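Quick check before the chapter quiz. The format below is the same one you will see on the exam, so make sure you can read both the input and the output lines.
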Amino acid sequence: MTSPAAPADLGFSYRVRKNGDVEILHHGRLASTLRGHEAEDFLHDAGDAASPAAQQLMARVTGNYKHGNERQASQHPRNRR
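Here is the expected output.
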């Protein structure tokens, strides 16, 4: 049995500042800033920003990950197509 593929792009990207801070962007807007050891650990784990694993990592770091209402939201009339 094959598992469904993770979405390749969740809209996250990151940039490293001169002072070592890492800014995580969601659709071009600043979502979170990591400093110190947290930034170093993120850079070690992230690798390529376009990879699905890096996208999931950035979603978890910013807190934009699994709110628990995903099933209810998909049933809302505005989201039905």
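If your answer matched, good. The mean pLDDT is 82.
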